[in-house]
Design goal:
By secondary structure, the chain is mainly beta. It contains two helices and 13 strands, in the order ββαβββαββββββββ. The longest helix is centred in the N-terminal third of the chain and has 17 residues. It binds succinic acid and fe (ii) ion.
C-alpha cells in the first residue's frame, strides 16, 4: 500500500521478510568493514543514533561540523553499496542515475533523530530513498521551513519512503522507537538506510 503524506511517499510493506533479511545481511557486511560511530555534534553533544555508510560518500561529524566524507573516521574508504540495497532505488525511482551514498543509521530503544532537512547533497533534484528495518520508528514529517504543522507515521520493517519533489527538502525526524515491535534484529533496534545522490 502506498501512502502520501505531505509529499512523502510511504511504500508500506514494500520489502517482504526475505528481502529484509537479504538487506540486513548486506548491512552486516558493511558494518563489519565500516563500524558504526556515535558522532558528536553541536557543543560536543553525542548523537543517540549510531551511523556508518556505504558508497563514495559517507556522512561524518566532529566538533568542526558535519559533512560528506570519502572515508570512514578510521581512514578507510566506505564499502560499496550492496546490490540488494541498490535494487530498492532502481525499483522505486526508475532512474538511470545511481545513488553514490547509503547512510546507515542504527537506533537503539532510546535513540531519536531531531527534525532536520537533508540539504548537504550537491543537487536536490535527486530523491532520497529511505528503508526501514527492525523496530518501528515514529517518523515526523514537516515543512520546508522549521516549525508549522507536522504529521507523524509509524514506519515498520520493510517500509520504504521516497523523499522527492516537494518533500525532498522538507524537515523530518524520528521521535521514538517502539522497542520489541519487530523480531528482524535479534537484539532489537531499528536500522534506517538512506540512499542519496550526494556528490
Ligand atoms: C534520516 O532522516 O536520516 C533518518 C530517517 C529515518 O530514520 O527514518
Ligand atoms: Fe534525513
Amino acid at each position: 500500500m502506498k501512502l502520501e503524506v505531505k509529499g512523502f511517499e510511504i511504500h508500506c510493506g514494500f520489502l517482504d521478510v526475505g528481502a529484509q533479511r537479504e538487506i540486513l545481511d548486506a548491512v552486516r557486511g558493511v558494518v563489519k568493514q565500516a563500524p558504526l560511530s556515535r558522532y558528536s555534534i553541536a557543543r560536543g553533544k553525542k548523537m543517540s543514533v549510531r551511523m556508518t555508510a556505504a558508497g563514495q560518500h559517507g556522512w561524518v561529524a566532529d566538533p568542526a561540523g558535519y559533512r560528506y566524507a570519502p572515508t570512514h573516521p578510521d581512514g578507510q574508504a566506505w564499502p560499496a553499496i550492496p546490490a540488494p540495497i541498490l535494487a530498492v532505488w532502481d525499483a522505486l525511482t526508475g532512474l538511470e542515475r545511481q545513488p553514490d551514498s547509503c547512510l546507515i543509521n542504527f537506533y537503539d530503544a532510546d535513540a531519536r533523530m531531531g527534525m532536520h532537512r537533508d540539504d548537504t547533497e550537491a543537487d536536490a533534484q535527486w530523491p532520497v530513498v529511505s528503508i526501514s528495518l527492525g523496530d518501528e520508528g515514529l517518523f515526523r514529517m514537516g515543512n520546508l521551513t522549521r516549525g508549522g504543522k507536522t504529521q507523524s507515521h509509524w514506519l515498520r520493517s520493510g517500509d520504504v519512503v521516497v523523499m522527492g519533489g516537494a518533500a525532498r527538502l522538507a524537515y523530518h525526524g524520528v521521535d521514538r522507537i517502539r522497542a520489541g515491535s519487530s523480531t528482524l534484529l535479534p537484539k532489537g533496534g531499528r536500522l534506517n538506510l538512506t540512499l542519496r545522490v550526494a556528490g
